[in-house]
């Protein structure tokens, strides 16, 4: 920490700067950027740091257009933003061996030339912000520095009575809400901006959040204010309630926005001591426009207009905003912006001036993490899969999207749809992936009442029918549910392995099946020793888990011999397999399991159990049928697959009961982390199996 008594403006893990020091760094950087970016447009793709803040202000000082890109954008979205923004220079952190073109706040940065045409943007554009996007190609919103400063000054004026002198940036700085409320507004009053890499705050990607890690960071850095997304607030408040921890004493104000909050969540947050207040804004108006405040608070509303904003309703009840509007969109003809901007949101203004939102005119989903998603975009990705005929996506205000699917073949097993969802998820960014799905009760047509006469799905009818018929659709997740959500991407990677698709399509070969059994033997023979190692390593507080592990050990004994019997029945050399060596991917997976139990956390083995048994339940029975039909092997060649396809269904239920008893966030985090790793490792095992078509060519 700095020894000076002069107030700090910026504090990250590498620098602690006063305003004078920060301004000097900005001036130096502005001169360097002006020389290094002849196109006048600079994009940054960086984690939160003091360097990001310097680059942002240096671009403004040098008269350059800044295009901040969130790290959670996919590669395709990054390329779209670079092209749509006409970016000439991309700034990233220099990795080992890469050239260093610029050093800012002790960070080595790399400037990469981009050969994109510099499309015309409205005069006065200072920043182009790309939201998460309702599709894969979001529009760039062109903002002027004057509008950005108006919003920052209005927010600073509204919060001045709270005497906030320390703010922790909890959201990615490229997100306009944090850029305005977490940097520019504190700069107006000279408050300290505490900036840390997002992983230290428990935030990964756009939609994964560890409340225990976040709580530790808040207590360490003692901020007066935060800006959170609703799902972050929900997870943190729930964690505080479950752990019976008091809220951090330093907090004076927690702004919540980016998606609907609701009075129940605010009540929960305040019950555990979090001073949470809901607000509302949009990129086209340079972020926050209305906000509840201490002394001017109405839960269920999004607050009153801030000093810089004017709000009214048009004749159709749509909210319109004036005061700090954008200049236009990238890639569109520059046209005069009217004084009032229709927001697309329906609402009411009560007698005291509080704005109450009532939904969106167009059907755009906003997840609980504040990501905007067009359901049509995700539905198209799902229908691109051969097994899916119809798909409708929901998830407004929920932590994960969910879908209702109707297959091309009504007799198809659910596994086919499960694999299709996994494949579609691989084409989507994490915030637009399907976390849960349910099979439709009927096709979407006029006869079922689930579509209009011209074939357009009746979304409300579909949601009403299927949300009430499945317990999967809930924002109050058990830990087992959360485990599934937090491993969606990794599970999708496993299920997208080419050999799995080939098998489910009936393209199998005897060498492929025998190699699968060989690798299965070499990891299944370690199941009992791993269970025993896990049991022995349990701390006393987890002794209640020992009987369940004992039962599991008794059940798993001898299953490796079943696999050798299957190999013999399929014509393979079982003894050669017994005395042979595993493939590299299998060896790495088993070694990681032993190491995780011994060195890190015994419950990481549960991550392996979740992956192997969950995959077995999804695939084993159908795979056995496809392989037997294609190869004509006897029933006794499928003891392992068929027994585990049935046995593991029971195990999954017991596993859910077991992990739902976990209360420690550290224990839960260990299981989630391990499950993500084992999905990757087990996926590598499948990717190492010989593909049938390759053998045919040989």
Structure description:
The structure is a single chain. 44% of the residues lie in helices and 18% in strands. It has a 5-stranded mixed beta sheet with strand order 4-3-5-7-6, with helices on one face. Strand 16 and strand 17 form a beta hairpin. Helix 15 runs parallel beside helix 20 and helix 21 runs parallel beside helix 23. The longest helix has 28 residues. It starts with 7 loop residues before the first strand and ends with a helix.
Describe the oligomeric state of these chains in a short phrase.
single chain
* Morphology call: globular
User: How large is the radius of gyration?
Assistant: 28 Å
Number of helices: 24
Q: What's the number of extended β-strand segments?
A: 28
Secondary-structure blueprint:
Blueprint: E1 8-11, E2 16-18, H1 19-36, E3 41-45, H2 50-62, E4 65-68, H3 75-84, E5 89-93, E6 102-104, E7 107-113, E8 125-130, E9 140-144, H4 145-159, E10 166-168, H5 176-189, E11 192-194, E12 203-204, E13 208-209, H6 211-221, E14 225-228, H7 230-243, E15 253-256, H8 263-271, E16 276-282, E17 287-291, E18 304-305, E19 310-313, E20 318-322, E21 328-329, E22 341-349, E23 355-360, E24 365-366, E25 372-373, H9 375-383, E26 388-394, E27 401-407, H10 414-425, E28 434-439, H11 459-467, H12 479-486, H13 488-495, H14 498-504, H15 510-524, H16 527-537, H17 546-556, H18 559-569, H19 574-579, H20 584-600, H21 604-631, H22 639-659, H23 665-687, H24 692-697
Parallel strand pairs: 1-11, 3-4, 3-5, 10-11, 14-15, 15-16, 27-28
Antiparallel strand pairs: 1-2, 5-7, 6-7, 8-9, 9-21, 12-13, 16-17, 17-18, 19-20, 20-22, 22-23, 24-25, 26-27
